[in-house]
Design brief:
OB fold (Dihydrolipoamide Acetyltransferase, E2P); about 25% helix; elongated; binds magnesium ion; Rossmann fold; single chain; binds adenosine-5'-diphosphate; 2 domains
């Protein structure tokens, strides 16, 4: 079931937390709301669930207006950061909860419960209480509880945040598998860009109650439209620049640190000032001292060895400092003080509006 959000505003005590937000989430989509703490992700998710009332605008499931419908009539499954299991009920009874609320009981109901728990690898802990389970198991129970009612929409609010790094990756895969199998429209909330990039069909990057950019993980990462998105999703060098000439093919020349490079130009016509965005991993270091195309000459001022890669800081001739991430053989091979060249493909350097 697709979700349509039209001009939605939500306020707490007269202050808009969500303001005039419109968004279409296609049926079967794994959609992620990504943004820092306080930007309104939970509020938007709870409004979709019906726990929070919109002050303006409308919400549609498929083409049905559900704006005023109470949560229990929306056929949604929800998973929270803190699992929200009933501590005094067994795992099986936790999962059975939504089915009982719909008037189901007996063997037929228990069969569904068992099936759903087996699905998340927990058929063997049905009679235990949540306290006897690990965090990862508890979140799997919460997933089974959400999915057993065959919801039309699955809503998840930072479900991986309380888990350690290894479990987070495991449960990430469980969630992705369940979602794909059931082909259920899913709204997933996170502040973690790696989670968002790895799991989603579409990402909405949120900033202060608005969706600042909407796109596939690749679009969000490789073509950020604002400095906020570039900064929030992955590391980025952001440098104030003035373009010297805008070419008809959407590129422009930029003077930087005594060199000139070609970059993609997304500035409106007649605008010269913008921000140059370059990902550290898109810059390549070489010891070649002679000037070459697309190369920024600089001096290594910092080096951090990170195992599979090395993170460098280079000072350019005008004292601009840029970050460069090196991979491959001998990636930590440039000493502090070494003069180097950092080259970038013109398609990977982008000038956006400031
Ligand atoms: N029940 C509430 N009453 C008043 N303000 C709230 C309430 N819930 C959240 N807020 C405020 O609304 C803003 C958005 O919060 P929230 O939706 O929880 O953001 P996020 O989930 O992105 O961290 C924050 O400034 C928060 O302090
Ligand atoms: Mg939140």
């Amino acid at each position: 079931m697709g979700i349509d959000i039209k001009n939605l505003s939500v306020n707490y005590g007269g202050m808009d937390v969500i303001s005039d937000l419109s968004l279409t989430i296609p049926e079967g989509c794994f959609f992620t709301l990504l943004g820092p703490s306080g930007c309104g992700k939970t509020t938007l998710l709870r409004t979709i669930a019906g726990f929070v009332q919109a002050s303006k605008g409308n919400l549609y499931f498929q083409s049905n207006d559900v704006t005023r419908l109470p949560p229990h009539r929306r056929n949604i499954g929800m998973v929270f950061q803190d699992y929200a299991l009933f501590p005094d009920k067994t795992v099986a009874e936790n999962v059975a909860y939504g089915l009982r609320a719909r008037g189901e009981s007996g063997d037929a109901m228990m069969k569904k419960v068992r099936h759903e728990l087996e699905h998340v690898g927990l058929g063997h802990v049905m009679d235990r209480h949540p306290a006897a389970l690990s965090g990862g198991q508890r979140q799997r129970v919460a997933l089974a509880r959400a999915m057993v009612i065959k919801p039309q929409v699955l809503l998840m609010d930072e479900p991986l945040s309380n888990l350690d790094a290894k479990l987070r990756i495991q449960i990430r895969e469980t969630i992705a598998d369940l979602q794909r199998e059931a082909n259920i429209t899913t709204v997933f909330v996170t502040h973690d860009q790696e989670e968002a990039l790895s799991m989603s069909d579409q990402i909405g990057v949120m900033n202060k109650g608005k969706v600042e950019q909407l796109g596939t993980p690749k679009e969000i990462y490789s073509t950020p439209r604002t400095a906020y998105v570039a900064d929030f999703v992955g590391a980025a060098n952001r440098i104030d620049v003035s373009i010297s000439d805008a070419n008809a093919d959407g590129t422009a020349h930029i003077q930087l640190g005594g060199a000139s490079i070609l970059a993609r130009n997304t500035l409106p016509a007649a605008t010269r000032d913008g921000i140059l965005i370059m990902r550290p991993e898109d810059l390549r270091l070489s010891a070649n001292a002679s000037a070459e195309a697309q190369a920024l000459p600089g001096t290594v001022v910092k080096r951090q060895y990170l195992g599979g890669k090395t993170s460098y800081k280079l000072a350019l001739a005008d004292d601009t400092v840029i970050s460069v991430e090196s991979h491959g053989d001998n990636h930590d091979g440039f000493d502090i003080g070494t003069k180097v060249m950092a080259t970038i493909d013109p398609s990977k350097a982008v000038v956006i509006a400031s």
